[in-house]
Amino acid sequence: MTVRIMGTGSALPERQVTNEELARMVDTSDEWIRERTGIGGRHVSTGETVAELAARACMEALTDAGKEAGQVELLLVATCSPEDATPCAACQVQDRIGAGNALAFDLNAACSGFLFALHTAWAYITAGIYNNALIAGSEVLSKIVDWEDRSTCILFGDGAGAVYVEKSEDGGIISFVQHSDGSRGDVLSCGSRQIRSPYFSGDSRKMEIRMDGREIFSFAVRQVPKAVEEGLEKAGLAVSDVELFVLHQANKRIIEGIARRLSADCEKFPMNLQKTGNTSSASIPILLDELNRNGSLKRGMKIVLSGFGAGLTWGACVLEW
Ligand code: UT7
Q: Is 278's C-beta closer than 6 angstroms to any atom of ligand 1?
């Protein structure tokens, strides 16, 4: 018995911000951003929240799967940019969509969050605790980006993606690989709130994203191919058996570097970062939804999902669509 994705959904804020628009704000250009990252634009929240975007994506995933919110048993939201410390975004989504019978909680593993949430759902379902789950990756990174830092503000975008999964006897998830390395947390970090305790005597915290781009770049190109190979070995499959690699959409050059290291055809690595930028935990489910809706995903196809990011965290999932 395993777990299979039965429906997908996504939601993006209406407002789109082009590279040219950013070039009027910081010292950059459309040419530099496209060449170094592949990003042409991104969607930015003008008020849409993590919970609101996640709820829209979840409703689409349920409709795609032909299910009602009341049938959902587990509701997970992966996010590193929730508006509130509590209640968690998943409980807010539960209320918005009327998934009153679900257990709901958040999970934060930054850009690997969706993948880790999918694995969590897989563990609950294969353990026999629940029969199905609704899993969203949702981010409003524009709240935590330093809009004066040209090396980061050009990268990120807002949005949400979701999948509905359920217990299945055929197809679905074949293998999982997950890794964390907390000793490298400083490479990509962001404080979540200033400490207001009168007893606290530490330094004030940086509340925007700080990143060593080159370090993240080389970490991703080194570790992701290894994780993918590990996942494929567990699944008893070869790189050549995989029809699509759905990777976290961080940077076109990172994805191309990973494809080269795997000796895989770049055509098998679909990308939508041209329009969405890096949406962290939302990027994999947003891309999955796009591929599902444009008919690129066919039942029986072998697919690899892979996420990587702050923590550091990274992993891969091999599945049959
Ligand atoms: O989900 C994971 C999240 N993180 C990532 O995905 C980040 C991964 N890293 C990257 O995508 C790349 O490292 C960046 C796109 C962030 C930077 O590209 P790079 O090719 O590694 O550039 P660099 O940091 O080596 O900087 C090269 C130059 C520097 O100028 P000098 O020192 O050579 O004069 C930067 O100041 O480019 C400059 N620069 C920019 N120039 C124009 C940095 N950002 C910009 C910019 N526009 N936006």
A: yes
